Amino acid sequence: MAAPVPSSRTRLIEESVTLSIAARALALKKAGRDVVSLGAGEPDFPTPANIAEAGIKAIREGRYRYTATSGTPELRAAGSAWLKAAFGLCYGTDEVMCTAGAKPALHMAMSTIIEAGDRVIVLAPYWVSYPALVHMAGGVPVIIEAVPDQGFVHDAAAIERAVVTHNAKGIILNYPNNPSGAVATRAQIEAIVRIAAAHDLWIVSDEIYAMLRYDGAEYVSAAAVPFGKERTLVVTGFTKSHTLTGWRIGFLAGSKAVIEAAGRIQSQVLGNPCTISQEAARTACAEAPFDEVARRLVDLDQRRQFLVQEINQLPGLKLTPPRGAFYALVDARQLCAKRQQSDLQIAELLLDEHHLATVPGSAFGIPNFIRLSYAAAMPDLKKAMTRLAAFVRS
Ligand code: PMP
Ligand code: GLU
User: Fold this and answer.
1) In this structure, is residue 3 part of a structural domain?
2) Mean pLDDT, the chain cut into blocks of 10 residues (394 residues total)
3) Ligand 2 center to residue 21 CA distance, Å?
4) pTM score
5) Do 66 and 103 share a domain, yes or no?
6) Nearest ligand to residue 209 Cα
7) How far is the CA of 127 from the centre of ligand 2 (A)?
8) Is CB count within 10 Å lower at the N or C end of the chain?
């Protein structure tokens, strides 16, 4: 008799492309290849020492047992205070929960609000995991095509048309955006939230890059504009700003009813987020006014400008300056047409022949674009540009 096979549901779920490319780049490096890794977005800066030390201290002092399932009361209070101090978002302690990163926060959020078969609007280019996360919660993602000519921010009227056509129940927003680096203006957020309110949509607002902005781009949360707060779930944390990547820690904020329900799900799935990492996150919450982030932004901005300058000199490639996060979404449509190759093939060739790891735009619903992460040291970026130029001119 044949062995049992994984469920049909699992066939809807692809492996995270960003993480599989990171794994491939690492394997090549381990095999002795000089790979420049601009694939997965992980800051090259180390976790700040005081934050790491808080985790070490927790272990030394024996604070490593199970905690309350939605995070320790102290961390939830610290998270609530941080949201107010850093972003002006007002959530009580019971409206904030701690979870094992932004990804689980998105999972808890969607599992809490999506009914079976609900359509959820996903705006391309979208972060790789959104469609899978919607599927896993029993929903159906409805993808709206990217608008590169509008700086990657969809207008509210186009969103409304899709909401009506598909009878959508929710929408995922992500500004600053991964992969485009777009940051919606206050007026744009207000207009989208107005549509969400008019059609009674949930909003899941992934604000994990909120602290990483350039050129004076303003951070505006969907939860901070009229009619926004009651229908918005904010996903946030220190993953990208403070390199808490492997620590697996993040926050979900929303109404007391949603947070309580999400907490019940978490209690059955995670138990609790890592106790040691909760201690580290508590230190991060208290760090205002965020000197560390300010220092990082100086470096990131320099790298961003370097990429904009270099890439726009290459024939067939174009890069509109990103205004947030740490990704360059390179428009390779001309190059793809000239070489008669897709973004998938180009990313493959860049890795195999030039040892440069990137992510093809197709992974984000924007074919014939290529994403480069500039959360990498300047010497690596310089090497990457030499290799990209060699490829383009080959
Ligand atoms: N949202 C976005 C937009 C991301 O780029 C990432 C990548 N890490 C996540 C969520 C997940 O973050 P975490 O590592 O905290 O789960
Ligand atoms: N979010 C990062 C990226 O988009 C890290 C990889 C992941 O979590 O998928 O590259």
Assistant:
1) no
2) 87 85 89 93 94 97 98 98 95 98 98 97 97 96 98 97 98 98 98 98 98 97 97 97 97 98 97 98 84 94 98 97 98 97 94 95 97 97 98 93
3) 10
4) 0.96
5) yes
6) 1
7) 8
8) N
